[in-house]
Amino acid sequence: MDSIITRGVESILHFPRSKKEHKRSVPRISLPFSPICSRSSSRSTSIISNLSLEDDASSLKSRANDYTPPTSVPPSPISSPIVKPTCQSNPIDNYSIKRTLGTGCLGRVHLAQNRLDNRYYAIKTMDKHNVVQKRQTDHINNERSILHGVSHPFLVNLIETFQDDSHLFFVMEYVQGGELFRILREHKRFNEKTARFYAAEVILALEYLHERDIAYRDIKPENILLDADGHIKIVDFGFAKKVSDVTWTVCGTPDYFAPEIIKSKGYSKAVDWWSLGVLIYEMLVGRPPFEDKHPIELYQKILECRVPWPEDISPEAKDLLQGLLTPDPEKRLGHHSIDDIKSHPFFQGLNFEQVLKRNIDPPFRPEISSASDTSCFARFEEPSEVTYGQMRFADPYRSQFPDF
What we know:
- One of its GO terms (biological process) is anatomical structure morphogenesis.
- Its EC number is 2.7.11.11.
- This protein starts with a helix and ends in a 48-residue tail after the last helix.
- It folds into 2 domains: 116 residues, Phosphorylase Kinase, domain 1, CATH 3.30.200.20; 179 residues, Orthogonal Bundle (Transferase(Phosphotransferase), domain 1).
- The strands form 4 sheets. A 5-stranded antiparallel sheet has the order 2-3-4-6-5. A two-stranded antiparallel ribbon has the order 1-11.
- Strand 8 and strand 9 form a beta hairpin.
- The protein contains 11 helices and 11 strands.
- By secondary structure, it is of the alpha+beta class.
- 45% of the residues are buried.
């Protein structure tokens, strides 16, 4: 057992640790960061092994076009398609950068207004040199490919991607309500009705991805944002991958690791159902079921599935969590059929068709005053100047990002 844990730790912890104080129990190395999320409230603990970066950025070429984002009040900044740039030398010139929404080791996320349609978007920018030096080229191309191929009410929408001589750009819908993590910390924990609502929307998003053989691999409150109406949007597809059978890369957030990830023997999309169990537990209890500041002890708890059960958790919730937090992925709830989760007594009385149609009232509705409101995000120090779009030197990396 110890050799299994040590092997996992060695593959994870050879990176230098972040100097920033975090709230997750195991430190994170910042990699592809959330397209819209504020780093100030995040526990920032996603990691990935540098020894086995994935090599198949699976092609998802046909973007679904049957989903129209719902109208919200204030009006959604993407209620109609973006006007494609026609008047500027570089697409970034069509955007007016307003402020920073988040930062990461590869770049930052800006709120920006499109000069052609006057709508607001979140633009994730990444320094190409940093991407290449940190060996994240395949992951960034993979993220772009997956986002380009998905369209769902509970997944963030990619508007367009492009590059200049020095940066890559993801233009995303601006999800104004901030992180579910922030709401959870404000309320300490959720009652079962609230947790059931968010879990149901996450389940439908994961069902959509799994039907397309996509494993998300980093479900956690920091990667779930709330839109202006209070419904979820899952963001940050940096660790998502098309997985038809098994994959081996150690990636995700340690508190949310499934046992099979730690064992490094290959894992399937079933890791997402384990993470769902951790998410529901954290919403109900206020902390993850597995915590320890020492990685080896944390992994030991996960492998042994040592879950502390509060006395006030309902029998239905406990039974659901025991099914999701099953160490054997073959026996884990959801592995054989998503209906096994949907039909569980914990969700009794909840109509998943109505959930998908966004007809269930959210527990919390963000207080948003306008389409450009950023009050749900922390403030960040702004760069002294923004130099995107300039043609200053030869670009040695352009060919490595052919779809941007």
